[in-house]
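Input record (one chain):
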Amino acid sequence: MKKVIVGLLGCGNIGSGVVKLIAQMREDIRRHYQLEIEVRRALVRSTEKKRIPEVPASILTNDPDQVLNDPDISVVLEFLGGEQPAADYMARALRAGKSVVTANKMALALHWPELQRAAEESGSGFYYEASVGGAMPIIRMLQSSLQANHITRLSAIINGTTNYLLTRMTDEGMDYQTVLADAQRLGLAEPDPAADVEGEDASYKLSILSSLAFHAHIPVSDIQREGMTHISQVDIKCAGDMGYVIKLVASASREEDVVDAFVSPVLVPKIHPLASVKGAFNAVYLHGHAFDDMMIYGRGAGSAPTASAIVSDLICAAQESNAASSTFEVVEGLSESVRMAQDRTCAFYLRLQVKDNPGVLAHVASCLSGQKVSVRALQQPQGSGDGAQITILTHPAAESSIRKAVSAFDAELVTVMNVLRVEE
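The corresponding structure, as predicted from the sequence alone:
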């Protein structure tokens, strides 16, 4: 029986959930994996705070050195969240030869080169399954199960808060501010929801997924990001009438050495598997040259699902004498083997408010055709304000062409209410 002594950096909801799950699974872990896990120390802000019975006061400390400098602790589990001091503490642990397990997508995405380098130089293990998708084993799939594939595209719903908001806006006809206030009351959205609703959280996760999928470092700074706060009930209804639902999607594709990566609200066909992902659930839809299409779906957040992934990584860390190195050199910026796309081609949704004057539609059509943008469908929902609303669905076109066409509209006749990408 191998004994593994563990230290925790942080012991809030997720950390406490991990300690509780270790206690619940102790006999199974002993029997199946021949491992005895002891949680020796937990770094916390307050040692006086009342915690669950599985977290005894005797293991609590507010001194990080009691975790990072203890020679008996071989695995460190990080639950501090945020960029710092989490990244610095993880780097210290790795340089000291301790394996590190984390769910911290922000610290990982922003400090991956430093952390990976520290792990490889010391020969310690670095595990981050829980950083994307909660209990969904998407990281392990990309690192091992799908090795015999060239993955060319991934589209993902990887932020439960925004998917919950958009689901209720779609299913219940609620406006954004109303459903956000309700989600905050229920604890499903943060008091300051900006990181979620502006796509920042999803961008960190997409950086991790796309880097693993394409075997090249795709930094967060190279991912185009757009939030969902400008999505209205009019957009949701118009999209529905055209056969689509609106989702905040993290998407990345690779064609030869060109990578295109973005996070934004997009129109997803109702028949697409991602369209059925509702509430706080997550999903990652992949395309590989050998397996074709695949989707993994599950709860992407929460104490119990995240604890499941953390304990799984802990067992791997305890069993493996040497963790596998990255399949690519994690450099500070974009990998030299790829370059980012400068223009994107896809279908687009445009919602316009136009003056009720003769020739306005002809003007819109002329501006679009002048940039070789072809109209696939046009609808006129119920009018509002001074004039009428029209929605246009285009055939695939370069994003630069859409921008030029929109800028050519006469501001006296046409007001652009929204422009969204369409995922086919």
